[in-house]
Write a structure and sequence with these properties.
The structure is a single chain. With 148 residues, this protein is an alpha/beta fold. It has helices at 47-50, 74-97, 108-114, 120-125, 139-147, and strands at residues 11-15, 19-25, 34-41, 57-59, 66-68, 102-106, 126-131. It has a five-stranded mixed sheet with strand order 3-2-1-6-7, sandwiched between helices. Strands 4-5 form a two-stranded antiparallel ribbon. β1 (11-15) and β2 (19-25) form a beta hairpin. The longest helix has 24 residues, at 74-97.
Length: 148
C-alpha cells in the first residue's frame, strides 16, 4: 500500500499503454471520493494485424554477407502513440480546467513514455507518481489502495 494524500480537486490519472482512467477527487482529507471523468481506450489489435511485412535484409557494401533487420515492434509504437494522446489530454485538462494537482499511476515503462510528452504546466501540476498498473481494478479498489 502507499501513503498518498489526495486533496479535494486532485485528478488521478491511471493508465497503461492501452487504457486510461481520469478520476477527480470530489471528497477530501482521509476519505477520497474518486469520480470517473473520462475513460480512454485503445483498440487492442495484435501485431499480425498492425504490420504484415517481413523483416528487411541488408547487404554489406564491400562483401557478399547480409543480415536481417530487426522487425518493427508495432505494439510498442501503438502504445507510445496512445500515451502521447493521454499526455495531450492531460495538458488540455490542466490548461482548460485550471487543475493544480495531478497524481499519475502507471507501470514504470508507461511513466517513462508519458513524462517527456507532458507540457511544462502539466509537469508542475504533478504532485505524486506511482509506478503500478491499476487500470484493470474497479474504482473502489483504486480508492482503497490509494487511501491506505
Amino acid at each position: 500500500m502507499v501513503d498518498i494524500r489526495i486533496a479535494r480537486g486532485t485528478w488521478v490519472v491511471i493508465c497503461n499503454g492501452a487504457k486510461a482512467l481520469m478520476l477527480e477527487n470530489a471528497g477530501g482529507g482521509l476519505q477520497p471520493d474518486l469520480q470517473t471523468r473520462e475513460t480512454l481506450e485503445q483498440p487492442g489489435a495484435p501485431d499480425r494485424e498492425l504490420g504484415t511485412d517481413k523483416p528487411g535484409r541488408t547487404h554489406q557494401a564491400g562483401g557478399v554477407g547480409g543480415s536481417a533487420v530487426e522487425e518493427t515492434a508495432w505494439q510498442d509504437q501503438a502504445e507510445e502513440e496512445f500515451l502521447k494522446g493521454v499526455a495531450g489530454k492531460i495538458d488540455a485538462l490542466v490548461q482548460s480546467k485550471g487543475i493544480k494537482s495531478v497524481i499519475l499511476v502507471a507501470p514504470p515503462r508507461a511513466l517513462g513514455m508519458l513524462r517527456p510528452q507532458l507540457g511544462a504546466q502539466s509537469q508542475t501540476a504533478i504532485v505524486a507518481e506511482l509506478a503500478k498498473d491499476l487500470t484493470n481494478f474497479p474504482v473502489d479498489q483504486i480508492k482503497r489502495y490509494l487511501a491506505a
